[in-house]
Structures are given as C-alpha cells and as structure tokens.
C-alpha cells in the first residue's frame, strides 16, 4: 500500500510530535529517530547522524535550546508549507544517484557549491521557482508544484573562490577543527562564528558597500547590494546564488589572514565597533586581530609633559584645572597629579639649628 508522506507520518506518530509542521531536519526527538530507524532497518546512531542536530559541536555550539542555528538555512515552516528556499540541491548529483536523495550539507548556509561537480547549488525549482517540499512531491527529484524534473535543471560553474570556501567548510565539518592563516581553531564552531561575522560585515551594516567594492577587485564578483529572502538581513536568509557571491568575498578577505583582512577593512574605513557589531561572544582570535589593527590609536602624554603644561597655564594667571589641561593636551591619567603639583604651596625651608653659645663661667 502506498502512503503519501503526511498520511504515513500522521498514521505512524498520530501527530505526536507534529513532524511535518516543524523543520524535520532539525528534529532530534528520540521517538522520531527511533521510529524511523526501526521502520527502515537503519542503525539508530546512523539515523541520528542524518539530523542537523548532529552538527552541534561541529558547525554551531549549544544553539538548540535557544532555537537559533547559525549557518543552517531556514525553510520557513508555516503549518505544512515551506515558504523559504532552505533546501538546496545539485541536479547532477540527483541524476547520478541510483535512488536520488538529499544530502545533509545542502541544508547548510556554508554550502553553495557541489564540490563533486564544481557547479553552483540551486535552491528553487527551475520550472516554477517554488521552494522544494519533498514530502509533497510524487518523487524526490520532481517539483511538487509543477512536476518539473529537477535533474534537468541547468547550473552555473562555481567561482574558484567559492569552491575554496566550500572545501574549507567541508574539511572543518569532517575534522572538527580548522585554521585561518596562523590562527588554528581546535573547535570548529569558533572558526565558523568568525567566518559568519565576516560574512555579516560584507552583506550589511556600516561601510559594507565600501568593503564590497574593495573585495570586488580581489574576487572579481559584483559589489551590488545583497538581496535577502524572508525579511532578515542575515547570512542564512540569502539565496543560493547570493551566498555563493558572499562565499567568494569571504575567501578573498581571509587570504593571507589577517593581513588582507586588515588592509581591506582599513581601505573601506571600517571601524573597530563595526567589525564586531552584534557579536556578543567575540572569539579571541578575531578580537586580537581587530584590536591590534582597527582600534584607533590614542596618545597619552607622560606625567612630565602634563606638569609642564599645568605650569604654563598657571603662569598665564588664570589658575589651572583638569578641564584646561584636557583642552590643551588632551586626556591623560596624570591630570590630577599635575594640578596638585602646581597648586601645592611651596615648602618652607627647614630652620637651621641655632649656633651654640658657650656660657661664661663668671
């Protein structure tokens, strides 16, 4: 007997939990995993590894409790509909599969290239531009809305810079560690948080257009503004082709890390605060680079210079105060000491002891 996916899910789980009204790839409910493993004759650990929750500690860290998954593409669940193009695919892979299946990495925002075929991934039906909803399709490789065969979709060659980004991301996900220049990240989520912040700096925010213009000359991609889907200006809300462009720019930015990064940020007039905006837990590897290269340099005059400035003000007969010193030489931690030295009354010289006069014996 043939079951459409929704009827099967409702019959098997009695809608507890309501699987198809959630992002099923993010579900780690042991009842669901155990039921799927038993019904398909799959090892329970293998079944659990197909969930995006298995990337906790590789791509992101402790995010499930807050419902936020950096670098995971949202599908825009509305009841049983999917409003956003969060499911990517490679037509060439689907055509080569004996039984077509969707790869786990195709749900990730760090993926925009099929590394096997060196082609850009797609995230919509090539016939009607609908987001993929496999559970509504008569076959996984067929569009649910217009019955177009997704295996016949045309794709574009991948940009070399984007290929390098995708390869770096895949290597880090497999090994659990990665590196940017001399910085080694023994915990890959830290590296991915740095890459995400670089992407956010490129796609939106102050001076992002100036930074894109600089990077366009290094990566040979367009510096036009990024277009978001779903109303949020984050890397996860970019279409596949827009993320592909962002990946190419990130690669150009991290080449010869951190020297190219600092040169590009400085050329774009990017401030320290803009480079770290909206990032509550800044990794040490990024903070040290930004502090050393983008934080404005300040000069604090030594105490001797401040004291001489205070004496100059006092000689003009207008008194001396910390405000006057700031106006003359700027901020210094020595203002109070200098004012105290200049305004202190002169010490009275110590009296010499009187000369002893010998008394007469008469």
Give your account of this protein's structure.
It contains 14 helices and six strands. The strands form three sheets. Strands 1-2 form a two-stranded antiparallel ribbon. It folds into three domains: 5-152, no CATH class; 160-293, no CATH class; 303-343. The chain is elongated and about 130 Å long. Helix 6 (188-203) packs across helix 8 and helix 12 crosses helix 13 (322-329). By secondary structure, it is mainly alpha-helical. 40% of the residues lie in helices and 4% in strands. The mean pLDDT is 88. Strand 1 (77-78) and strand 2 form a beta hairpin.
Task: Provide a compact summary of the structure.
With 362 residues, the protein is mostly helical.
Strand order of the largest sheet: 1-2
* Gyration radius from CA atoms, angstroms: 32 Å
Q: Rough shape?
A: elongated
Poorly predicted ranges (pLDDT <50, ≥5 residues)? Answer: none
